[in-house]
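Field notebook, page 388. I keep forgetting to write these up properly, so this time I am using the form the group agreed on. The chain and the ligand, manganese (II) ion, are recorded exactly as supplied. Prediction of the bound pose follows.
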Amino acid sequence: MTDDAMVRAALRAQRIETPSWAYGNSGTRFKVFAQQGVPRDPFEKIADAAQVHAFTGVAPIVSLHIPWDRVEDYTKLAEHAREHGVRIGAINANVFQDDDYMLGSVTNPDARVRRKAIDHLLACVDVLDATGSRDVKLWFSDGTNYPGQGDIATRQGHLAEALAEVYARLGADQRILLEYKLFEPAFYLTDVPDWGTAYAHCLKLGPKAVVCVDTGHHAPGTNIEFIVAFLLREGRLGAFDFNSRFYADDDLMVGAADPFQLFRIMHEVVRGGGLDPAEGVNFMLDQCHNIEPKIPGQIRSVTNVQEATAKALLVDAGALTDAQQAGDVLGANAVLMDAYNTDVRPLLRELREEQGLAPDPVAAYHASGYAERIRAERVGGTQAGWGA
Ligand code: LRH
Ligand code: MN
């Protein structure tokens, strides 16, 4: 039998980090559709992120992306975040948009370009110092498009050198989140293509290097919860970039395309103790709201993670273990499906009301008039985007 008080306590303690870039304009190579009221700078992005926390109660952290969120004074930005009841989380480096990086950043054949890329990564660690954040997230678009274009071993050597230099620069409580991705923008080879490559580099670096699992970065059919269980067991699951996809790296709302997969992932998180803050797993969203309103999209995404987490917490672990030990295949599966098929929305509504929040965060946001206010106020200036 699951302990109701434990379930409620875990849900109240859940913390989800939203990405600053989800509040800006985003799209595909075909079109970026601008939306009215979109932030023009990191200060407005943080104000919007604070709305997500205000209505959900579990999203008090905002990830930044450099240079998209570059400011003169990061301590001032961190102060602005505090004034809005949130704090700055992971700092994302960006070595995928400068013209110099056409043939790679830290793996570029040209030593000058590799140096430039490493200096940017080190500058992102400086931002950690300024904002008091723990994690620098490293995702490399580095790869090749045609066989023979690059030497795999040489590139891995360059990558290892760059990671080692960043690792050496880390402060005592700082970490590298190494993110992998199967493909895109490279279409033949990506230098950090899968969890195994990321894990191997992290093992070589040391305990402050952990893996970031972006749920949109796997080959179709990949059992992501296996990767989660494995990395958790090894103490190397550092973070999630939650989103969902039907085909490729679609960056759709987490749980929208495959809520059962998200449940299975959160089941392994709960089973592996990953909800315990001491385990150090950072639950982040990494999404793009290309055609839907951004703040409600983030609120809905946060509640999707809450629902999957609540269902995972309702798994009768004792009955599951008994059935597994007994080789009761159908019994074991039924225990999991009972939890998955439980409607947890009444429980979450109740928890929100207990915390003085509206039971339906999306409806409450719409009723707040914030959307109309920012549409009216944010006229002129340049809307934030990926700057690609
Ligand atoms: C790469 C990625 C990475 C971010 C970017 C916004 O696809 O997932 O995490 O830098 O999206
Ligand atoms: Mn990501």
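OBSERVATIONS:
- The mean pLDDT is 97.
- The longest strand covers residues 87-93.
FOLLOW-UP: compare against the apo run.
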